[in-house]
Amino acid sequence: MQVPLTNNYVTVDGVIHHNSGKSVGCCWEVFSKTMTQKVHNGVRSSRWGIVRNTYGELKTTTIETWNEWFGDFTDIVYGHPITGILKMPLADGTTIELQLVFLALDRPKDIRKLKSIEFTGIWFNEASEIHYSHISMGTGRVNRYPAKAAGGFNWSGIIMDTNSPDEANWWHEMGEEEQPEDWEFFEQPPALLNLGTDQEPNFVENPQAENIINHTIGFDYYFKQLPGKTIEWVKVFILNQYGNSEPGSYVYANYGPKNYTDREFDPGLPIIWTHDFNFVPLCSAILQEDGGSVYAVDEIVIKGAEAQHAATEFIERYKEHKKCPVYVYGDADGNKGEKHGLESAYIIIRDMLQKAGFKVYMKVPRSNGPIKDGQNSLRAKIIDATGKRSFFVNPNKCPTVNKLGTIQLKSGSSFQEERDEAGVQDIGTSIRYYINAKFPIKKKEMSHFKR
């Protein structure tokens, strides 16, 4: 099926690169399949499930894309679940009646949402981010609508799209290893090519790239995404390559001497104090931001300590700098106890610093974001895809932070990190909490296509 206004063909299980038109193509595939269904009493009926991994992304990206192309013809009701109906007369005198059920399936137990609905087709949007158990259940919910008594169907099945996932993802296993019967995988040319190396990249336009003419700013859409992104992120979302996370590999492999600095604490800048609350040892880092770069200028690592011990140490070290505002970031687990009227670790730290005369601003989230997001944000500060470094460590003041490059992945995981007795993983975690809060890498979900 050709996507209107493009030279892009999207079919079942299309592996297509970031913002290349895959979601638009799948919307049109849903509509196209409906147009060719059997006629019963003058109506071509279909019922489609449209699935995304989270409710937020379902509303702001998947449904938004659907409405961009078919919103004028679709009545959507934001209930539980979100449903839609599209009715349209065709030139042959028949009428389309397309029922839509929009579902968010971000947890394994959400599989129950699929169990009671009979579909003509299911579209799994960004399928690699959806648990495989949901995909498997989906195969048993199609080939059911319309029923034989209501005319049956000409086609029924599943379509999926995704950015290239990590090699540990089920998509890689199915597409590159098992290749199940009746599954088809299609790969789209990437927008850019890297003629250099990971360490010294040289990104150029790919003459085989599709849909570029339909982007408002053409290839610049992709080039403008390079600053602030890791080379791994660029490989997945722009170069259409599988991500690589071999068990035991280093999480921050590009951290090295080029990230060292002799810069020390500057009393003219705010203090950023970021925490991880594993108490053996209790680890936190003192950071300062200047011109978009982040500098690790001190660390507090205390074995067998609790929040009050860290606060006492901080007050002693910075008692001459009470005019510097203190911004506290870190692990949301430090909020525990507040719901029950108890003093959390952060309340203890805030109250002790304020009593000592510091002006404190709490920037701790209510919950921690995905580990991978934090890792990618920190990697991009260590060095981004353009070779720019904006995270620096004083190795003399921060010996634990300086071992950041030794943190390894756990065996069998693409993001879980091995812990160590010295607190390197803990202090690395504290830093990524701040970096991800202040410098997150965000997917650009909107299509930016000319309609």
Question: How does this model look, in words?
Answer:
- With 451 residues, the protein is α/β, with parallel strands linked by helices.
- It has 3 domains: 174 residues, Rossmann fold, CATH 3.40.50.300; 46 residues, no CATH class; 182 residues, Nucleotidyltransferase, domain 5 (2-Layer Sandwich).
- The chain is 25% helix and 20% strand.
- It has 11 helices and 17 strands.
- Strands 1, 2, 3, 4, 5, 6, 7, 8 and 9 form a 9-stranded mixed β-sheet that branches.
- Strand 15, helix 9 and strand 16 form a beta-alpha-beta unit.
- Helix 8 runs parallel beside helix 9 and helix 10 packs across helix 11.
- The longest helix has 16 residues.
- The two termini are 17 Å apart.
Characteristics:
single chain, alpha/beta, Rossmann fold, Nucleotidyltransferase, domain 5, 6-stranded mixed beta sheet, disordered C terminus
Taking the alpha carbons of the first and last residues, their distance comes to 17 Å
Strand content: 15-25%
Q: Name the CATH architecture of the largest domain.
A: 2-Layer Sandwich
Q: Determine the mean pLDDT.
A: 87
Number of domains: 3
Which ranges are low-confidence, i.e. pLDDT below 50, for 5 or more consecutive residues?
A: 1-18, 444-451
